[in-house]
Amino acid sequence: MPITGVTAKKTIAHGGDLGAVGRRYPNAPRPLIDLSTGINPVPYPIAGLPADAWSQLPSREAEQALLDAAAARYGCPAATIVAAPGTQVLIQLLPRLVERSRVAVVGTTYAEHELCWRRCGHEVSVVQHCTDAGGADVIVVVNPDNPTGRLIEPNALRAVDTRLLVVDEAFIDLGPVEASLARDLPDNAIVLRSFGKTYGLAGLRLGFAIAPDAVATRLREELGPWAVSGPALAVGAQALADDDWLRRTAERLAVDSKRLDALLAAAGFTVLGGTSLFRLASHLEAAALVERLGRQGIHVRAFAHQPSWLRFGLPADDEEFSRLSAALQVPQNVR
To answer: Which class for 211: exposed (0-12), middle (13-18), buried (19 or more C-beta within 10 A)?
Structure first.
């Protein structure tokens, strides 16, 4: 029986599809190295979880502990935070809660934003700057941007004139705390924060919306009870409260991102930007380099709309840096 009101989903290429890479390059060296995402390659260490995190339904107390840790980390009241099983769920949910509108997505950026608003019947355009939105009812900004790393100052975002401003801060954790809009949230804004990228635990599926009270209440209603698993509540609360781990991680990633920039420059790339979790670079022979890297068991992110662009996540250690250097035919002493 056909389901009415549902449109076919356009296929969007994402990173992380190592199964497909393995099938395409069956003779490539193992283990495969996934540099196609912006996920921290050195994840937060998970200590032993209490048995009831697995065996019982998630408790209100465990959820509140997570929200309190998130509030302290993000600098906003816990009452404004909604926990969800990943920010992707929130990206898909928000367009369903807004009446049909004119939506401007500041891009080129994470393509799921445009797709999800368009699929719900909204009139969507992609613009280069917030000032190009032309009176849109809803403006969506990824800040810092994926994949360019462009960062819009919070005061500039607060000056945006629109009914609803959605700011996806998936990659902001390692930047200056004052860069986040969540610390002084405008009445018309919703901020999305990702957990899995910075903490290297994307498989945990945990993310947050920070929103005015009425919007936060509506999101909780739509997500329903027990939206976040017990293990995710426990791990998230522990990790978000760990200041020392985040500080050490930020220092390591800053060093490694500079090391990656030097390696890419030595291989003839022009580094265009990015964040400390990924770098965006261009090369006239990008397509051929994707193939060369694939045959060496290294997966990077290509972009159909910008064929000269490649996005590189950070190698996890010296061994992965060495394999990337060899695949790109760059001397390993480049720093």
So the answer is: buried
